[in-house]
What we know:
four-stranded antiparallel β-sheet, single chain, Immunoglobulin-like, Methylamine Dehydrogenase, Chain H, mainly beta, 411 residues
Amino acid sequence: xxxxxxxxxxxxxxxxxxxxxxxxxxxxxxxxxxxxxxxxxxxxxxxxxxxxxxxxxxxxxxxxxxxxxxxxxxxxxxxxxxxxxxxxxxxxxxxxxxxxxxxxxxxxxxxxxxxxxxxxxxxxxxxxxxxxxxxxxxxxxxxxxxxxxxxxxxxxxxxxxxxxxxxxxxxxxxxxxxxxxxxxxxxxxxxxxxxxxxxxxxxxxxxxxxxxxxxxxxxxxxxxxxxxxxxxxxxxxxxxxxxxxxxxxxxxxxxxxxxxxxxxxxxxxxxxxxxxxxxxxxxxxxxxxxxxxxxxxxxxxxxxxxxxxxxxxxxxxxxxxxxxxxxxxxxxxxxxxxxxxxxxxxxxxxxxxxxxxxxxxxxxxxxxxxxxxxxxxxxxxxxxxxxxxxxxxxxxxxxxxxxxxxxxxxx
Length: 411
């Protein structure tokens, strides 16, 4: 009996420690190797390298592999400040500048390839980059035109609500959505539809950021009126009254569990799980309360690019402790076979229980979700998934433990 009490006491202490030390903040600045402490944009590639862009002229691009920093700037042929970074499914890195159009890194090359509109000085300021299902690049500029780059050719698409394009997302039907300084524009391949604060429930026509969740909802971050959510029919707006840290929203990212992360101008970061809001600021460990960009790596860590404070990383220590415990027991979190998969794969659970499974791409976008899986294994169809690397989060609904893995889909 005494042994049971001692065990329960030790378990309580462990759980208390996990709860009270559930998160760890790390900040990287110029002193560590970052080229500039004002970070405008970032992306994470297939190998887990973090790429950071700086709006200031000459700072270039910083790459962090977890140990070593590498900076690319004018010495490497890059001109101007970097305002957008994106990685496509082939692993190519694309960078939007404020004076010289696009730069790209292909394969393992360290040589940058430059693309810009043939007319000198026109449409060179690139604010946003996105890739369609064919891997082609769509990019929005300060000059208003949106381009589709294929075989080194450019096509101009007119019909935007405003000439200033801040963000682009592409939904599962192939519709392109553009955040502008005059509203939200959708292009279905032939027709343009624009949503404004006067013809819809959009909170503001000045839009900084867009994100698409697993249910197909569009999340819109505005420049002063909070966040609007659009499900295709209905609009819902969230502001500081609801729990948002600040009504000027600069960036949006959605994690593998469906939590929405919002970077704000002056208010820090807000996390929204659909019901509850959690806010993080400099008092918690964030480097600056103005956050320009957010990215999530393969381990679920959140990276925040800030204005003047460098980059902050929010790490979930609970998952780290659990993963280390599994490693010490020589136990794998779960198995996936075949991996790589062509048409289907099987997820084998650690033991029969109640699980939720979320499959996301490397940008953090959920592509498949399964709830209440109770057998020790389940078959997942992958024939409708594009080739690439996907992150798996298997959540035990009894213990709350999240098991993580990777799946390669090869066609």
